[in-house]
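FIELD: query
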Amino acid sequence: MAPDAATATTPTTPTITSTAIATVLIIIPVAVTLRYMWLCWMRPFRPCPACHRHGWKTTAVLRRPKTCRRCHGRGWRLRLGRRLYNHLRRLHYAAHRAGGQVTRLKGRPR
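FIELD: result
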C-alpha cells in the first residue's frame, strides 16, 4: 500500500535562529582574541618580515649584506599585542609609583 501524496511528510530543514547567529558572531572574535593573547604571552617575538629571520638584507646596488633596520640584526620583532601590553604595564607602574602623577614614559622618540 503506497502512502498518499497528501499525507506524506516531507523532511523539515533545520532553521538557523538569530540567537544562534549572534552567539557565533560573539564566540568567534572572543576565541580569536584569546588565542592571540595566549600567543603574545607564550611567544612574544615573531619573525622579522623584512629580513625573514636572517638579521640582514642585501643592498639594491652592490648586493652586499647589511644589518636589518627593523630588527637590528636579531631576526625577531616584538608582536604588536605584546608591545601594547608592555606599554600599558609600564604606564600602570609609572602611575602608581609617581603617586598618581602620570608623566611621559621614556621609550622610542616620537
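FIELD: remark
Helices lie at 18-42, 80-97.
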